[in-house]
Amino acid sequence: MSATGGRPAYDAVRPELLRIERRLMLRGALSLGALSMLTGCRLDDGNAVDTALAAVSRFNDRVQAALFDPGRLAATFPPSAITRPFPFNAYYGMDDIRTVDASAWRLELSGLVADRRPWSLAMLRQLPQRSQITRHICVEGWSAIGQWSGVPFSVFLRRIGADLRARYVGFTCFDDYFTSIDMATALHPQTIMALDYGDGPLPPAYGAPMKLRMPTKLGYKNPKYVAAITVTNRNPGGYWEKEGYNWFGGS
Ligand SMILES: Nc1nc2c(c(=O)[nH]1)N[C@H]1C(S)=C(S)[C@@H](COP(=O)(O)O)O[C@H]1N2
Ligand SMILES: [Mo]
Fold it and tell me: What spacing in Å lies between the alpha carbon of 90 and ligand 2's midpoint?
């Protein structure tokens, strides 16, 4: 990491740099030093690093999208492997967890959707449910195994008459978080609208009343406290993505 050593401006992008460098090294191809050659950027200030990373990240999005296999399943685990207690994470601390009256909650729909009527929790519970025990990986350096159950998102998207040829699905949350995913991931069989965690309803810490759970994506791509969903051809971006996290965010 000689290109970045000891400069405070790099601290914010350091995790991303480490991740990119590790990936480059794993492929046996490049070092971080080569990043500057690859992108033609001199990595001598925060802006230059940002520009180089953004270029690599966009390239990375395209590679990940091309390599994503819609039929390949993420690993699943036995109940004995579940991490207890499952960690909480958000862009704020546990004291600021948002709660909503589950019976009053309505999921708003917009964009390329034929039937935009809002959905209640009771309506979602009438759709087919699927349960899975999978690993959640956070880029902050931890991972944990949990059990989420809920409606396969592909079932829901078909039910609302979403345009399945659209490129993106965006999520906004009632804690002001937001993120978005590619349609291939939205339709992946393990992508679920999680209503339950373990044996009971999804607790407030983990995103009650509904979060999108996708074991093929990193933690920050899994929105908790979902308030609204949009289907669109314009990339809605995301809370961490606008800070430089890779948009595709595959795990
Ligand atoms: N609404 C919302 N969703 C969110 C976040 C957030 O701050 N708000 N943080 C993300 C990140 S970075 C992680 S690692 C996971 C943490 O989920 P958990 O609390 O169930 O472990 O939620 C993701 N989804
Ligand atoms: Mo995360």
Answer: 7
- Calpha distance 191→42 (Å, rounded): 40
Tell me how far the alpha carbon of residue 219 lies from the centroid of ligand 1, in angstroms: 6
Task: Tell me, using a 6 A CB cutoff, whether residue 156 lines ligand 1.
Answer: no
Partners of 230 in beta bridges: 110, 170
Write the CATH number for 124: 3.90.420.10
pLDDT digits (tens, 9 = 90+) for 54-100: 887 888 888 888 889 999 999 999 999 999 999 999 999 999 999 99
* 53: pLDDT strictly greater than 90: no
Q: In angstroms, what is the span from residue 34 Cα to ligand 1's centroid?
A: 33
Instruction: Say if residues 77 and 135 touch (Cβ distance below 8 Å).
Output: yes
* Closest Cα to atom 5 of ligand 1: 90
Angle at 108 between CA 101 and CA 147, to 5 degrees: 65
DSSP, res 156: H
Identify whether residues 108 and 187 lie together within a single domain: yes
pTM (two decimals): 0.85
Domain range for residue 45?
A: 6-67
pLDDT tens sequence across 103-142? 999 999 999 999 999 999 999 999 999 999 999 999 988 9
